[in-house]
Amino acid sequence: MDMGTPAAAGVGVAGRRSPRVHRAWLVAAVTFLVLLASAAFRSSLGVLLVPIEDDLGWTRTQTSFAVSLNLLVYGLAAPFAAALLERVGVRRTAVGALLLITAGCLATTVMTAPWHLAALWGVVIGVATGSVALVFGAIVANRWFVARRGLVIGVLGAAWATGQLIFLPLLAAVVDAFGWRAASLTVALVCAVLLPVVAAVLRDRPGDVGLLPYGGAVVEDEAAGDAPPSARAAVVHAVMVLREVFWTRSFLLLAGTFFVCGWTTNGIISSHFVPAAHDHGMHATTAAGLLAVVGVFDIAGTIGSGWLTDRVDPRLLLAVYYGLRGVALLAVPALLGPSVEPPLLVVVALFGLDWVATVPPTVMLCRTAFGPQRGGIVFGWVFAAHMIGAGAAAAVSGAMRAASGDYTSAWLLAGALAVAAAAASLVLPRPGRNVAQPA
Question: Going by fewer Cβ within 10 Å, which terminus of the chain is more open, N or C?
Fold first, then answer.
C-alpha cells in the first residue's frame, strides 16, 4: 500500500525520488519501540514495590519516596531534553537513554540501601526515561510529519502508556517465578537488544536523508532552524521559553490540567493500584493483569484520540476525557475486592480509553498557542507539570494510605481533581487564535 502523499512520496529535498513507503513511518515505528522499552522499567515500579520491601526489609515510605523522586526527575528532564535534542540530536539522545536504562536496571539488582533505590530509580532512570518520553515522541512526530501528525502523536503516546501497563503482567510473572531482580534484568535485556536498531534507523530530520516531512511541501521552520551553539545554550533557551510563557492563560491552564493528568494516571494508578488491590485481597498478578487491560484499551483510545484531534476541537476532547476519568476514579473504592467483577472491568476500560488520550489534544494546543519553534519546549514544561503531579500523587496517596489504612481518600481526591480538570479544559482559549496572552 502506498502510504505517501504526493508531496511526501514524490521528490525529496535533494530532488531524488522517495520510496513508496516514506521513511517517516519507519522512524515512527522505531520511536514507538524506544518509548515502549523506556516505559517498561517505569511499569515495573508498581509490581516491584512489595517484593523489594519483603526482600530487603524496607518500608513503604522509603520505596514511595524513590517512586516519587523518579516521577519528579522524569518530568523535569522533559523540557531540558526538548531543548537538548536540538543540540544532541534524536538518535544520540535515544541511544544514550537506552544505555542509562540498561545500566540502571543492572545496578538495581545489587543495591543494598534505600538511598541506592532513590539514586537509581529516582535519578538515573528518571533522567533516562524522561529524555525519551512523550516530549521525545512529539518532537519526532512534529519533525517528520505534516499530514497525519495528530494520529502519529496518538500512536506514540499509546506506546508510552502501553509500555508501562502491558509489561506489568509479564514482569509480575517473572517476579513470581524468579524474583524481582530477574524482572530488572529482563528490562535491561530488552533495551540492550534495541540499541543497534535505534542506531541504524533513527535520524534527526527528514532533510538528513534528503526527504521532506511526510505530507510536507516545504521544510517547516522548526526543522530548518540552526541548532543551539552549545548544550548550555539549549538549557538556557528552555528556561527562557518558560519565563516567556509562564503567566499566559494558555500555559497555566494546559500545565494545570496536565498536572491533574499525571496525578490521576502515573501518580495513583501506576504506582498504587497494585498495592491497593492487594489491600483488598487481590493477587498482585491479577491486579497487574487489570492494568494490562488498561494498556490494551489505551492503544485504541490514544490512537482514536489522535485521529479525533485532527478533526474535533481539542478542548472538548480534553473535557470529555477528564470527566470520564473522574467518574472512573470515584468508583474505584466501591469496586475493588478479592475478585474481578464486571463493574470493575468497565472502570478499567474507561481508564484505558482515556489514559493518554489527553496527549494529542494537549500537544496540538501547545503547538497552536506557541508556534512550531516553541511548541515542543512548551509541551516539555507542560509534561513536567504532568510528572510533578504524578510525583505528588505518589507521595500523597502513600501518606493517605499510611494514615488511614486504605486508599479510599486517595481515590476520591484523584476523582475530584479529574472533574475539576474537565471544567478547566472548557475555558482554554480556542485553537487558532493568538492565545499566548497574559492571564
Answer: N
Within a 13 Å sphere around the CA of 123, how many CA atoms are in the beta-carbon half?
7
Say how far apart CA 198 and CA 218 lie, in whole Å.
27
Phi, psi of 103 (to 5 degrees): -65, -40
Q: What is the DSSP letter of 213?
A: P
pLDDT higher than threshold 90 for residue 82: no
Q: Domain 23-425: which CATH class?
A: mainly alpha
Q: Which of 333, 322, 350 is nearest to 397 (CA)?
A: 333
What would the grid cell of residue 205 be? 530530520
Is residue 214 helix, strand or coil?
A: strand
For 214, phi and psi rounded to 5 degrees? -60, 120
| DSSP code per residue over 276-328 | HHHHTT--HHHHHHHHHHHHHHHHHHHHHHHHHHTTS-HHHHHHHHHHHHHHH
Please give the Cα distance from 232 to 411 (Å, whole number): 41
The cell for 194 is 534495541
Q: What is the pLDDT of residues 1-16, one digit of tens each?
A: 334 444 444 444 444 4
CB-based contact 61:193 (threshold 8 Å) = no
DSSP H helix total and E strand total for the chain = 17, 0
